[in-house]
From TrEMBL:
Its EC number is 6.5.1.2. Residues 586-652 form the BRCT domain. Keywords: DNA damage, DNA repair, DNA replication, Ligase, Magnesium, Manganese, Metal-binding, NAD, Zinc. DNA ligase that catalyzes the formation of phosphodiester linkages between 5'-phosphoryl and 3'-hydroxyl groups in double-stranded DNA using NAD as a coenzyme and as the energy source for the reaction. It is essential for DNA replication and repair of damaged DNA. InterPro entries: BRCT_dom, BRCT_dom_sf, DisA/LigA_HHH, DNA_ligase, DNA_ligase_AS, DNA_ligase_CS, DNAligase_adenylation, DNAligase_N. This is DNA ligase. GO terms for biological process: DNA repair; DNA replication. The gene is ligA.
Length: 667
């Protein structure tokens, strides 16, 4: 070996050692300047003699050539997730199941690091590949980015071949610095360290990833045959010995009560950690017990993740605003002093109805505790009574509609207050918005703002008036040019050809959804035939319940409605079924043709599973939120896509909303 090659080898050894002492052991033996000096010596040699640069050189930590994309790679064994526990009862159930299966056990308690799962493959002691979790089956090759994480050994102290898995994360300190820099550059800051870590690992230029200062904790091994461990605890110790960084807050315990103590301790102390955790992972310690328990499709039966309750913050309730929906329901909304919760700024939260306001005794001026239900939808949890201003008065819903002043009624058996004035402006505007929406008449370009203007200018009073509009009516509206007006006129014209089910749905008849509209249109084929149906006839139809049958007949018997239908007819609006039969529709009418975006971490299914299911229902699943997005399904820690959807007013569902809908459809 030449003396230069020998020097390179020495430099590798020293730099790896110093790096390990600093980043894994947190116990440097030399000053930073010594490390830098040796690193620069190595960089110099490699620049002059590129043939001496190896893939495990400590210089790869600073990043290399940018890539154009990440290669998709199948995992050798799927990267599963964990089932969740949210409270003591869930944990005791888990414990019982374990003890029923294998008797008394020890548990390993570990912090649940809030980052991204990655896998690292070593061959003969050298790091050869690093993958993201992806959908669990296929990940992306982010080896070059992972190599920039100093705590990941490029070479191990033994020549073994195996795969280790762990959580890459961004320490809070790095996160704060990164966001400060972003704000200084007028860029949107990251919502939380997890999003920042995810963004960094997906940088195509590993030099940029290197600048992001990520870290990692390893927590599992794929194949134990390479190691001498018989427990999770020993496996982690062995990972330590091989040069990996594991989390040392772990504790081995003998009972579920001790697990609960560990959870309590970290619930209190989590804020003091230099990184975010979102829960505690509990694993059966003995590998033979783990093997006995095995796996479900999605997760090991021998482990569970306890999730910390959603973040709660305090803010002031400035006002209660009322909105009137299409069906006249008056909904109170809390207007809040803007506050950041779980990654986004919250300034409004639905209070649902008067009963809820009274149950929680919510008053204007109160300090209130806010959290995000399912980590997405803001909710007022409770009032802080000690902080209540002396003059705060019990809130009463108005007796009259804030829009039309008609008396509000509370329909028996319902908690909602409702304005029953069919001429109520707020309701009519909402009704018009519904009429032009995508699943109804699909009049593109006729948005809320335009409808409101047309209404206040008395150009439209009911849905049929839309078809009486002329270009001259439109031109005086705000921000309306000739081109836009023409486009809108064209869209209105085209909508006349919509099939009967779209028109029916658009009329906004109570209890009549997309599916039943389809069923009715397909069965009766024309509006004229529908106008003659009886309740008895209707309830015979499988998808039509009593409530709908009654509401539909009452609606269609109404003389004003009959006149409205005539008015629509006289303008050439189609009144016949010309859509696809249900048997030909691919998917479910509720989702077919909709553009849906999935974002955030889902707990009960993977994003791929959710996406596949939606596609089966005929939906288009896309990756970015735009004006044409119909629905955003947001899991935990959803970031900028959720913010965008909020700002566009796109419909947002939590994972639970989605699951409820799936159950309804699969019923
Ligand atoms: S064990 C079969 N241990 O939490 C999955 N996971 O759904 C075994 N996580 O995807 C995972 N800290 O990204 C394990 N100490 C820890 C963890 C941990 C964070 C993440 C991991 C996993 C998710 C659980």
């Amino acid at each position: 070996m030449s003396s230069l090659a020998q020097r390179v080898e020495t430099l590798h050894k020293l730099l790896h050692q110093y790096n390990y002492e600093y980043h894994v052991k947190d116990n440097p033996s030399v000053p930073d300047s010594e490390y830098d000096k040796l690193l620069h010596e190595l960089i110099d040699i490699e620049t002059k003699h590129p043939e001496l640069k190896t893939s495990d050189s400590p210089t790869v930590r600073v990043g290399g050539e940018a890539q154009s994309s990440f290669e998709k790679v199948n995992h050798d064994t799927p990267m599963l997730s964990l089932s969740n526990a949210f409270n003591e009862a869930d944990l005791r159930k888990f414990d019982q199941r374990i003890r029923d299966a294998v008797g008394e056990v020890e548990y390993m308690c570990e912090l649940k690091i809030d980052g991204l799962a990655v896998s690292l493959k070593y061959v003969d002691g050298k790091l050869v590949q690093g993958l993201t979790r992806g959908d669990g089956t296929t990940g992306e090759d982010i080896t070059e980015n992972l190599k920039t994480i100093y705590a990941i050994p490029l070479t191990l102290s033994k020549n073994i071949s195996f795969e280790v898995r762990g959580e890459a994360y961004m320490p809070r300190q790095s996160f704060l610095k990164l966001n400060e820099a972003k704000v200084a550059r007028d860029e949107q800051p990251f919502a939380n360290p997890r999003n920042a870590a995810a963004g960094s690992l997906r940088q195509l230029d590993s030099k940029l990833a290197a600048a992001r200062k990520l870290d990692i904790f390893l927590y599992s091994i794929n194949d134990f045959t390479e190691l001498d461990a018989s427990t999770q605890s020993e496996a982690l110790d062995e990972l330590d010995a091989l040069g990996f960084k594991t989390n040392h807050e772990r504790e081995k315990v003998r009972s579920i009560d001790e697990v609960l103590e560990y959870i309590e301790k970290w619930t209190k102390q989590r804020d003091q950690l230099p990184y975010d955790i979102d829960g505690i992972v509990i694993k059966v310690n003995h590998l033979e017990h783990q093997e006995e328990m095995g796996f479900t499709q999605k997760s090991p039966r021998w482990a569970i993740a306890y999730k910390f309750p959603a973040e709660e913050v305090i803010t002031e309730l400035l006002d209660i605003e009322l909105s009137i929906g299409r069906t006249g329901v008056v909904t109170p909304t809390a207007i809040l002093e803007p506050v950041r919760v779980a990654g986004t700024t919250v300034s409004r939260a639905s209070l649902h109805n008067e009963d809820l306001i009274h149950e929680k005794d919510i008053r204007i001026g109160d300090s209130v505790v806010i959290k995000k239900a399912g980590d997405i939808i803001p909710e007022v949890v409770r009032v802080i009574l000690d902080r209540r201003p002396e003059d705060a008065e019990t809130y009463h819903m108005p007796t009259h509609c804030p829009s039309c002043d008609h008396e509000l009624v509370r329909i028996e058996g319902e908690v909602a207050l409702r304005c029953i004035n069919p001429k109520c402006q707020a309701q009519l505007v909402e009704g018009l918005i519904h009429f032009v929406s995508r699943q109804a008449m699909n009049i593109d370009g006729l948005g809320t703002k335009i409808i409101e203007q047309l209404y206040t200018h008395e150009l439209i009073k009911d849905v049929a008036d839309i078809f009486y509009l002329t270009k001259d009516d439109l031109l005086p509206l705000e921000r309306m040019g000739d081109k836009k007006a023409q486009k809108l006129m064209d869209a209105i014209e085209t909508s006349k050809e919509r099939s009967l089910e779209n028109l029916l749905f658009g009329l906004g008849i109570r209890h009549l959804g997309v599916k039943a509209s389809q069923v009715l249109a397909e069965k009766y084929e024309t509006m004229d035939r529908l106008l003659t149906v009886t309740e008895d006839e209707l309830v015979e139809i499988y998808d039509v319940g009593e409530k709908l049958a009654q509401s539909l007949v009452t609606y269609l018997e109404n003389e004003d409605i009959r006149a409205l239908i005539e008015k629509l007819k006289s303008k050439g609006v189609n009144m016949t079924f010309k859509g696809q039969k249900l048997s030909q529709i691919e998917g479910h009418p509720e989702f077919a043709g909709k553009t849906i975006v999935l974002t955030g971490k889902l707990q009960q299914m993977t994003r791929t599973e959710a996406s596949n299911w939606l596609k089966l229902q005929g939906a288009k699943v896309t990756s970015s939120v735009t004006k044409s997005t119909d629905l955003v399904i947001a899991g935990e820690d959803a970031g900028s896509k959720l913010t965008k959807a909020e700002s566009l007013g796109t419909m947002i569902w939590t994972e639970q909303d989605f699951i409820d809908k799936q159950n309804e459809i699969n019923k």
